[in-house]
Amino acid sequence: MSKTPRNAFYAQSGGVTAVINASACGLIETARKNPTRIGKVYAGRNGIIGALKEELIDTSKESKRAIAGLLTTPSGAFGSCRYKLKSLQENAREYQRLIDVFEAHDIGYFFYNGGGDSQDTAHKVAQLSQKLAYPITCIGVPKTVDNDLPFTDTCPGFGSVAKYVAVSTREAALDVESMCETSTKVFVLEVMGRHAGWIAAASGLAGQFPDEAPHIILFPEVNFNREKFLARVKRTVKKSGFCVVVASEGAHYANGQFIADAGSKDAFGHTQLGGLAPVLANMVREELGYKYHWAVADYLQRSARHIASAIDVKQAYAVGKAAVDFALEGQNSVMPIIVRKSDKPYRWTVGHTPLAGVANVEKAMPRSYITRDGFGITDAARTYLSPLIRGEDYPAYKDGLPRYVRLKNTLIAPKLKKFKLNT
Length: 423
Hints:
Elements: E1 7-12, H1 20-32, E2 41-44, H2 48-52, E3 56-58, H3 64-69, H4 92-104, E4 107-114, H5 116-131, E5 137-142, H6 158-179, E6 186-191, H7 198-202, E7 216-218, H8 226-240, E8 243-248, E9 261-265, E10 271-273, H9 276-288, E11 292-296, H10 298-303, H11 310-328, E12 334-342, E13 347-354, H12 379-385, E14 397-398, E15 401-402
Parallel strand pairs: 1-2, 1-4, 4-5, 6-8, 6-11, 7-8
Antiparallel strand pairs: 2-3, 9-10, 12-13, 14-15
Helix pairs in contact: 1-11, 8-9
């Protein structure tokens, strides 16, 4: 084993966010401050695939200014992927490849930045390290706009998408209200959230008083009832002149079938969702005859760094920094978490939790956060959500557009034979 500091591997996984690069910034900057403990930080090109294909980006080739620029740059600077490693028993070949690559480049630290499936991968690598007696410290770095990781008070990435959805809902509602007398009466906004309605719930912050939009929120936690939905739309239009609906893509019927089931699966085996907004809009047209418009926030909601939550940016950076700090303290197979200390004033700190309890566990919204009728959020939800969207952290602008950093992403020379991924 080399006497020089061992190197680190960092990768981004799954759907990217407005602040995932802030976590990368915190991690790389902290590692650079500990040159006697950590050598180089290699980033996987396109997530874990970069490790399997031995496509390792040498972040030491990037300037201090470029790494600092990650703090205000959205998306995944090193590339991400949706590639799920199977169990150690099912796919020993790929796990052995990871160890071979790590050993070839003297990698002693593994940092994986992602959601539940990514934390599962980090946990498996930690198990593999013990099984094969190859010493490597594995730390998961939390990220998901869905806000569905357990144990952490909130997930980096969520606060910014929540802010975007709340702002967009308020602005669109004003538009619809101004035109509803002679034009559109129903507007449907589809947002992300497969099994957890956190993002849809955030839209509820747009309305400050009773009867303000959004008038209807559809959550995965509440079974969809077509008749009740249409009756509420009709009653709202009659009372207010218009109706704004915000729907989670994971909304489903009582039998579990997604309203927007596209009939295919993604790389993680999840049902591919999409098209909920037009389905709901067509229900309204066919049954009530109202003129409508619909929109799908899609990638816009998770990439909107120009209106990111300042709290979210700070927390994303903090978990990246903490990942390195915990590794150097001797922690292994853990994930940094946000711990809420108080609501008013909002105070938080960073703790950690074992990866074994995080992997593949989804945190749904508490029923106490949803109104009794199933169409809105309660005061308890507002207390939880409100602090997470506070503060603005605008990027620098040039010629009217945000200035986002682009890294060189210089690959190191491979030492092993090419490897074919399982497909």
